[in-house]
Amino acid sequence: MPQYLLSVYSADDEPRRPMTEEEMQRGFAVVEAIERDLRATNALVFSGRLLEAAQAKVVRPSRRRIKATDGPYLETKEHIGGFYILELPDDATALAWASRVSDAIDVPIELRPLLSMPTR
Q: For residue 103, is it within any domain?
């Protein structure tokens, strides 16, 4: 079955209205419900939330020595804040889940199929 990456985007410099504790708890409940539904359909392979982009390190090849720099790889306004890896029957189902997540957390979601490698 195909697998998909749902990348949750955020931007550090985009002003967002601070949420009240009640709004945060409602948001957590909505995300928990989505993840519960994903687990119930055996679609959730893995999910994770990332710390802010300032915590990122970039490792580059440098003549067999490790060369690491601070910060995200790209100088961009948006960065990945979290992700889901889902196993779903088709693109339409993946798009439906991505839409549900985007609506729930009010941020853009990038949906990409993972390359399926042949088994040996």
A: yes
**pTM for the whole thing?**
0.78
Cross-strand pairs, 68:
59
Q: Number of folded domains in the chain?
A: 1
> Tens digit of pLDDT for each residue in 64-112?
776 665 655 555 667 788 999 999 999 999 999 999 999 998 888 999 9
Please report whether residue 119 resides in a domain: no
| Bridge partner residues of 70 (DSSP) | 57
Given a contact cutoff of 8 angstroms between Cβ atoms, the answer to whether 31 and 108 are in contact is no
Q: Which domain holds residue 69?
A: 3-113
Amino acid (1-letter code) at residue 80 = I
- 6 pLDDT higher than 80: yes
User: The tokens 């995200």 sit on which residue?
Assistant: 72
Task: Give the whole-angstrom CA distance, residue 120 versus residue 115.
Answer: 16
The CA-to-CA distance between both ends of the chain, in Å, stands at 16
More confident residue, 83 or 119: 83
